[in-house]
Amino acid sequence: MRNRKKKYKHLPPGPSPLPLLGNVLQLNMKDLPKSFIKLAKIHGDVFTVHLGSNAVVVLHGYDAVKEALVDNADIFGDRAFLPAGQLVFKDYGLMLSNGERWRQLRRFSLTTLRNFGMGKRSVEERIQEESCCLKEEFRKKAGSPFDPTYLVTLAVSNVICSIVFGQRFDYKDKNFLCLFAMLKNGFRIRNSYVGQLLNSFPKIMHLLPGPHHQVIQNFFTLNEFVMDKVREHQKTLDQNCPRDFIDCFLIKMEQEKDNPKSEFCFQNLFVTVINIFLAGTETTSTTIRLSFRILLKYPDILAKVQEEIDHVIGQNRCPSVEDRRKMPYTDAVIHETQRIADVLPMSVPHATAETIVFRGYTIPKVTKMLYFLTSVLKDPKQFQNPHKFDPNNFLDEKGGFWKKEAFIPFSTGKRMCIGEGLAKMELFLFITTILQNFHLKSDEDPFRY
Q: Which residues form a coiled coil (predicted)?
């Protein structure tokens, strides 16, 4: 205990922790962002909280986050040890790994997920195909009121399936729906009150009953699903014409089979595929759904977006990514939706790679770091009226699109989301396709925030 106190002696200020519990009783574990906003007002933009016996340094606001993740990227770029993640992923895959494993898998994944990285069909074509399928599902509703959440999430998940497995699934396919349900349940538990407690008190939570145990079972089921798909790919693999992410990974495994330092093995393949699903499904589909609700709340903004769609794209062809350059207002609306919706208020926890003196405080090596992205996206120094939906945040005086450095919904630095390019394409193509073909109406207040 004495050594621990000495280790954390020069950490940033924060609320006084209780033995074993830390600050858990002083924080709203169901809504940590709200607690962090209050603490930042008391302790400033760099403060410490104790989740159980773990000291966690929280960075608040654009200046502090940029100084860490961009200006000191090598030191603040490691991934923290997460007990909940270790239960299912161990040290495999892209999301929770560090060192050479992370570098090899990230480099490969970034290259493969680029627009023309796989076979003859581009990622854009895959999204366009799925947008048309979603459009037809909407048409089947024949103008009757319905909640689009389920269909939108299936469509986004299908894009990932197309990229990873080389195939899309029918929206009623039982295997697809089972996969989708497990992913959604895992994401929900990971971000729930129970998930927070699991990371703070892993030994105690492991002994207690609860939904967190279902995450482990879901992982084994998902792992078996991916293994079956890999076996199918192995039987039909053409080294000269990779069809998808799995093909590319298998080819890389063959190329490096004699390299003892290679990280291209089956376990890294299985976990990386699941990482991509987790990162690429829920956040994008939630943003699309919220964009429709926001536009329903602001019919004047919706009308301007549809006017721009009619002017640039018209009604006789599908939207393309190239159209975005000619549609600054629509682009601004989508960016403002991401900013105000704030679907990932905190980045996945990082850790310091070495001891550093940061803003006068000594942060030891392997200290867990939380970057409070909400405080960046709603930083009053960076955005005028930060809690109000206003597309002008991303428009210049001439009405051209203007991206701000503080716009980091995908985080920033070495660990920024590898799916940023994919997500941007999905948001633009799905939203413009639906608004090109349908008028949105709601009988209720569509959005409260």
A: none
Does pLDDT of 4 surpass 60? Answer: no
Tokens of 298: 């602001």
Bridge partners, 350 (sequence order): 79, 369
**CATH no. for 1-90+346-377:** 3.30.43.20
Q: What is the pLDDT of residue 210?
A: 72
Asked if residues 94 and 272 have their Cβ atoms less than 8 Å apart, the reply is yes
- In angstroms, rounded to a whole number, what is the distance separating the alpha carbons of residues 141 and 137? 7
Is the CB of residue 447 less than 8 Å from the CB of residue 294? Answer: yes
DSSP state of 45: S
Model-level pTM?
0.91
Letter for the amino acid at 214? Q
Amino acid at 224: E
Q: What is the DSSP string of 63-120?
A: HHHHHHHTTTHHHH-EEPP-HHHHHHHTT-SSSS--HHHHHHHHHHHHHHTSTT-SSS
| Residue 411: burial class (beta carbons within 10 Å; 0-12, 13-18, 19+) | buried
**What are the sequence ranges of the domains in the chain?**
1-90+346-377
Rounded Cα distance between 355 and 364, Å, is 4
pLDDT attached to residue 351 = 96
The predicted-structure confidence for 90-112, as pLDDT tens digits, reads as follows: 889 999 999 999 999 999 999 88
Task: Name residue 97's beta-bridge partners.
Answer: none
Rounded to whole angstroms, the Cα distance separating 382 from 406 reads: 7
Q: How many CB atoms lie within 10 A of CB 136?
A: 10
Q: Are strands 368-372 and 54-60 parallel, antiparallel or unpaired?
A: parallel
Neighbours of 124 (CB within 10 A): 18
